[in-house]
Amino acid sequence: MAIPASYNLRNLMVRKTTTVMTALGIALTVAVLLSVLALVAGLRQAFASSGDPRQILVMRKGSTAELNSGVTRDVYQSLKFMRGIARDAAGQQMASLEMVTVINLPSVDSPAGMNVTLRGLLPVGIAMRPLKIQQGRWFQTGRREVVVGKSIAKRYPGARMGQQLRFGKGNWEVVGVMDGGESSVNSEIFGDLGQISSDFNRQDGLSSVLVRAVDAAAVPALIHSMNDDRRLNVTAEKEQAYFDAQTSSGAPLQFLGIFVSVIMAVGSSFAAMNTMYAAVARRSKEIGTLRVLGFSRGSIMVSFLMESLLLSALGGLIGCVLVLPLNNVTTGIGSFVTFSEIAFNFRVTPAIMASGIAFALFMGAAGGLFPARMAAKKEILTALREI
Amino acid sequence: MSEAVIETTKLTKEFIRDEFHVVALKDADLTVNRGDFVALMGPSGSGKSTLLHLIAAMDRPSSGEIRVLGQDLRALTDRAIAHWRNAHIGFIFQSFNLLPVLSALENVELPLKLTNLKGAERMEHAATALKLVGLGDRLGHYPRQLSGGQEQRVAIARAIVTDPDLILADEPTGNLDAASATDVLTMLARLNKEFGKTIVMVTHDPHAASFATRVRHLEKGLLLPEGQAPEEWNAAAAHPGSEG
To answer: To the nearest whole angstrom, how far is the Cα of B140 from the nearest Cα of chain A?
Structure first.
């Protein structure tokens, strides 16, 4: 049996200041990592919640985003009548011609203004999305009215219910706030396709077509026939795949966050190492005594390593507590794909906290290994003679 | 015939310290039988602690033979020695060497952690050992809450809790006042007489040695013949052949 954990725990408690300072260093490192992971998880959740497995997004061949895509009304008509397209209760094809652009709105965080996605679409486009009106009503066809996503209403004071937005050729009234669950639609503004395309002089230079297949099984065949039709000159892909790819918006931030965390982790590991070297030096006589009592070198090593792990686990727990208030806090990130801001909530999930603890334990193991090895390698008489 | 617990033949320990070749113990022949209470006496640097450390397998000899409880210690690995020491040896230090963050009961329980006893059994054994040394009312006390004499009694309880075949004590009264020292020595004598424990105690205090049943003197790394005091040995060394 090993040296009791209470021995390590109490030793940590005896040197409170050192323990707390080292644990805080580890906690800050864990908090930085967890903040980044929570941000990326929130972003991922926003895109993962967007898209329907039965739907296909069609853009101009070679386009990777709706913003730089161009689709004509002729193409839309051809797509609409392809085999395998679903129909609504009224017998109309579920295909939505849409125009996407960005407009600039002053936000809470950025009074100078941020780019926001403006989408002009047909009524069927609304029916094809899991949306509900949180406040007000939907825009009416042929009128200069818009409905804003709930994140837009929250983050842009000038885009709240009843306000007038100025873009295109004049003012637009905000007549409703829509709730798209956790999807990226919450960061968009919807309006009538005809009105918006006219304001931007893009009556025939539209962006994309969203179509719904009769079922998910029919999607691959439909994509295949769209991509193979050279007259259409389009790229069709699953709507979900399109949004998955947009998660890359968070990649630079994720990289930077992890990079900073790793640098901090090196520092924290050295702090843990320093603390443990001091513990080994101060408890040299105890190490000798334990060896005389019959504990093996292995037991000594495990004991000191465990002490380092306990120290880092404490740091990990504090790090989790520090980052918990971030959960569900709304933030926004500029997307390099849509050139607009996507608002989403930080998500501090149990899995993310577990990875934070694991990261802390890794720091503890890295910092504790050499001091523990040194403790185990001490000769009994040398250990007993050290003060 | 008495059973030999310790047998050393020409046991030697040499080492290099600051470029100097030091012979800490030379050609020591010692036999300790079961039930003996042997005091190893000598001034500082005489080699008495070195001999004790070799008996406890805390150090390895440079040459010579050593068998403790029939086991040739030179043949054991580090891990086997640790196990052997836990099973057969109880060690008492001059400065008690209790773990300060553990209570008296937990300190005494520590060597039992390496046995197959369950938690409750370990606690029971440890409490019994503490009662035996008169500290039944100090189970939950930490070393800092005990006097020197009480700390040494906890250390004795820790040394006997595994019911070892051999108790080794390195200057057990060196850090104690006269009254506490007498208490500790009385206790060791009682362990020897009533419980038949074999004890080897290192001391330079003649009063402490008077509690032992046998006394062996060491001088400059040499274990003197049984019954010979350093003065006689020094005189004999100065006038070889004068005995007759």
So the answer is: 14
